[in-house]
Amino acid sequence: MTTTKQQLNNREIISNMQQSAALFPGQASQYVGMGRELYQSSAAVRELYELASLLIGEDLAQISFDGPAELLKRTRFTQPAILVHSLAALTVMDRSFPRPTVAAGHSLGEYGALVAAGSLSAEDAIKLVVQRARLMEEASQAKPGTMAAIIGLTLAEVEQLCNDASSAGIVTPANINAKLQIAVSGETPAVQKAVELAKTRGARRVVMLEVGGAFHSPLMEPARQGMEQALADVRIENPEIMFIPNVTAAPVSDGATIRELLIRQITSPVRWGESMEYIAQMGVQSVMEIGPGKVLSGLAKREMRPERLISLDTLEDIESFLDPAPVL
């Protein structure tokens, strides 16, 4: 009886997690049908969806499983759907989930990472993200804006073109996903001007993003104020493992600071590229993406180049990871 190299790697990760990272995806990772098998497999998972549905006032399970895609893309539904999917994966693994060395999440993914790190309860994370999604959607409706991805320019170059485009309105770097992959966010005329400037300054590719608003920009200030109130009375424990927040891209070890950074995160850039760099410099070589899609896995594969990269999205993914079948 033999096993494949990947099966050996999985078993090694389970028995020795000293060098592993758990990454939690953010908005744009959603897809219709996400989480269905996890929901069907576990009463505890169904309770997570029921809580989120009660708070939202809509059936989140039905929206996640059946869509339509346009409805699932609404910020109000997207953020809770992605978080609950990530928490569902953790719930299905339960005590079999090997505790990682470090956890991080992209934007709303921070809430899943904080549950994995022992700082937030799953219930509090869901309550906060439901409020966060509502506040960000309302801010987007009050002050419409958009985002665009710029590939092939450095952060300094993107900052300069945002400054040059500011005559048309507010525009700022928002998602610094890698050294040469940065999304800008702000008022639509200013973002459009930044896009045109990027094309003339050597960007390899520029893409207008289909998003509900100008996330991680000053236009989200009303949402930031709302999250400050929402977070005021929530218990946030010191993380039990290393946690890397978006705002600093460096470890934070106390709950009070985490609270402040979750507030600041709403209007601050997501420093994801630096976060990956920090984790890679730790010597982490086993990376797990927990939740829908493979957006963070793709970035990690290109930027971190880990020895082992595992996506824990579907029930099949989880079962294969925890109990890889031998090859006869």
Structure explained in plain terms:
- Strand 8, helix 14 (295-303) and strand 9 form a beta-alpha-beta unit.
- Helix 4 crosses helix 6 and helix 7 runs antiparallel to helix 8.
- This protein has helices at residues 5-15, 36-41, 43-56, 60-66, 69-72, 75-93, 109-116, 122-142, 155-165, 188-200, 221-231, 255-264, 272-281, 295-303, 315-322; strands at 20-24, 102-105, 146-151, 171-178, 181-186, 205-209, 242-243, 286-290, 308-312.
- It has two domains: 5-140 and 218-322, Malonyl-Coenzyme A Acyl Carrier Protein, domain 2; 146-209, Malonyl-CoA ACP transacylase, ACP-binding (Alpha-Beta Plaits).
- By secondary structure, the protein is an alpha/beta fold.
- It contains 15 helices and nine strands.
In short:
The chain is α/β, with parallel strands linked by helices and 328 residues long.
State the main characteristics:
328 residues; alpha/beta; Malonyl-Coenzyme A Acyl Carrier Protein, domain 2; Alpha-Beta Plaits; 4-stranded antiparallel sheet; 15 helices; disordered N terminus
- The structural class is alpha/beta
Helix content: 40-55%
Sketch the topology as an H/E string, one letter per element. HEHHHHHEHHEHEEHEHEHHEHEH
The fold-level CATH name of the largest domain is Malonyl-Coenzyme A Acyl Carrier Protein, domain 2
Number of helices: 15
Q: Taking Cα atoms only, what radius of gyration do you get, to the nearest Å?
A: 19 Å
What would the average pLDDT be, to the nearest integer? 93
**Quaternary structure type:** single chain
Overall geometry comes to: globular
Query: Please, how many domains?
Result: 2
Widest sheet: strand ordering: 7-2-1-8-9
